Protein 1
Amino acid sequence: MPAIALSETGNGKDFPAKLTGQVLVCSIIAAFGGLMFGYDIGISAGVTTMDDFLIKFFPLVYEKKHRAKEDNYCKYDNQYLQLFTSSLYLAAIVACFFASIVCRKFGRKPTIQAASVFFLIGAILNCLAQNLGMLIAGRLSLGIGVGFGNQAVPLFISEIAPPKYRGGLNICFQLLITVGILAANLINYGTSRIHPYGWRISLGGAAVPALFLLLGSCIIVETPASLIERGKQEQGLYTLRKIRGVKDVEKEYAEICRATEISNLIKHPYRSLMKKSSRPQLICGTFIHMLQQLTGINVVMFYAPVLFQTMGYGSNASLLSAVISGTINVASTLVAIVLVDKAGRKILLVQAAIQMIICQCAIGVILKMFLLTTNTMPTVPAKVVVILVCVFVAGFAWSWGPICWLISSEIYPLETRNAGYFFAVSTNMVFTFVIAQAFLSMLCKMRWGIFFFFTGWLLISLIFSATMLPETKGIPIDEMIDRAWKKHWYWKSYFKNDNHDGSKRTEVAAEIEEKPAA
Ligand code: BGC
């Protein structure tokens, strides 16, 4: 094979590729990791309002809930109940650190397989739980699954997808998160009438997608980047040809090899991530996840039924409202799949931030006006709040939901991708944990003011997405530095006199130009 000059590979032309069945199937199977994540998010919301579940594990909350004069804003304020929801994210934070190591040393595929095993164990423990300890142990195991899955799946999809379709395919992950949430809401709606063990069916249901993921993860390919990174060049080239569906993959192969050689020179990816030239990606990749959680989305996802009950809806009506907002979540994520590679990432983020600001503000105003300490909210404003929640969810679902996972999986060069992505996922988990643990107490203390707290953060998100994020639409993943970061009005200054990317890339480039490509 002739030597491949780097000037040809890094010049920004897209690499030839078809959207093959192989890429589609592998992306969908891997995205089942998202379904597991979504199911776990959605299931705790409904289960925590089921009386049978509360009597067994949280009798104090049960009593408080049924005390007629209890403060509207405080009836669910219980640290243990919040711990049931949040413990999963605590485990996920720790797990994604180990997952980032497994991902780099052993590959994306085994990391996804490990996730499915933890999911399965967690679902079984939860379904059979006899006491709070067993229940929390199950949640912790699910959390480890989430840590492993969320670390590996978006990376996996970004690496196997052709650049042109990367955004859309990557959003399959988010799409299945939303499908998981909806499935959980629907199952809760059904099992809430099955006494006294409906909650066991809800929690045990997670075993079904976990099993599918376990079986599916045995047939997916390993990504070419991960194979080449671990010294399996031939297999990498073979897989690349297979997933691209064209013979002419040499340019892309050379680009991956170039990125890999640089990556392999980096012995301490975490240290390298702290260098000046990695800072733009690190800051944007983590900040966007923090802001995603501070939109307040998980207040709706975790506590929508509780919130609706707070406003005076009955138990069934509350679960039904959660099903409605869950359906809107799925439908709006489809909008993102269609638009993200056409309109771009930034415009969707900016538009949706404005939409969400209006909704959070309006909800705050309505609650302030109509939800007093012990009254039942009048029907009309209560209905308007449900509509506002739905519009809020729609905005999130076509923007900050999917795009934040997408951006953080595509902005890093290979050498810091795993480490950088670890920071992104763990930031997401930390803030998910904080919201899950603190929301019910914050609602009790701040009352309607909590919605203005989220509005404030949304304003910051608006400014951040409009000014600080580079557009990454359509740029091959290994050309991000040159074509996105070095062109950004602010971040470009981080790449002046850039020894890390400059000298190392040039050294390796010179070597590769001299020797045959494969
Ligand atoms: C977020 C989750 C959220 C979900 C809602 C995801 O992108 O990371 O925290 O619950 O979207 O669809």
Protein 2
Amino acid sequence: MTDLKKIIQNAAASHELSAEQIIAVLKDDSINDFLFSAADKVREKYVGDEVHLRGLIEFSNICKCSCKYCGIRKENTSVQRYRMTEQEILSLAQYAKEYGYKTIVLQSGEDSFFSKEKMVSIIKKIKDMGFALTLSIGEKTYEEYKAYKDAGADRYLLRIETTDKNLYQKMHPDMSFENRINCLKNLKKLGYETGTGCLVGLPEQSIESLAHDILFFKELDADMIGLGPFIPAPDTPLAEENGGTLTIALKVMALTRLLLPDINIPATTAMETLEPDGRLKALQSGANVVMPNVTDKSCKQKYTIYPGKAGLNNTPEAYKLSITSKIKSIGRKISNNYGFRNKF
Ligand code: SAH
């Protein structure tokens, strides 16, 4: 067995890797299949064969941020903006209930219209419907995060995007890296199941910094990691740049599974966007969650964080059927429970 294979095999048992070891694995593509299969086994051992489906509602694409990679950044005037009413959000949640989803994920741009009071009202009503609830609505104050938690929100997704501070500042000219870290610490402190993650393949992103991203996930003891390839979006400053590949995104994901064996890891839409069966590959390389979009078609088509998003023409019903049969076709089951992290 080669040295790299031994490193991967040891990590599958010890859940530890040094930055140098991660870099060596990321740089060598001859061991990819070995890495994916090791992550798949760790996934099976710790979180089993069940796949958790989380119903995603993209409730507003209005955003005050200028993230250079993002298609719904505020400068992009070619986006048709929308904002759902509370009633529209709740009726989508009702559909999600009928599809059997146990979790609702509420995601949006950073839209100040949704004040603390408005969010609290939506959160309470979704919780009353019997869902676990994940929020993905960006940077807020400690008081706001606390109010959402007190109202019943269970989980929060806030990707660090990159741990390379210089690159972070370049990508988010009007934001602060320290504040992002602080938000993640606050979420942990408040008892949220905290999710983070990164973009893979950003311009000027080094392999070394991806290794640090992975170690950061471990250091934070993240409960969920969502990551995907950067996909250049039209009408953004990065429109003409190269994007990330599915392979490197899967490698970062698989290494994350080796280091954090018991967490929830989604097979993300960005992965499916680059290859028709990207999600299935992800589910066989460490992932155990899928987030089917339950947003109605006209809004979903306007939530253009990147182009060509997989599933834009599917109805939520058709998607539920197709993902269920795909998951079963690889010998996996659809979970019936809320899918919280069971910490080992
Ligand atoms: N406003 C929320 C939700 C952002 S959208 C927040 O700040 O958390 C969710 C994720 O989409 C982002 O965290 C980012 O990692 C990803 N994303 C944005 N633009 C992208 C692009 N061009 N390619 C791939 N992923 C992108």
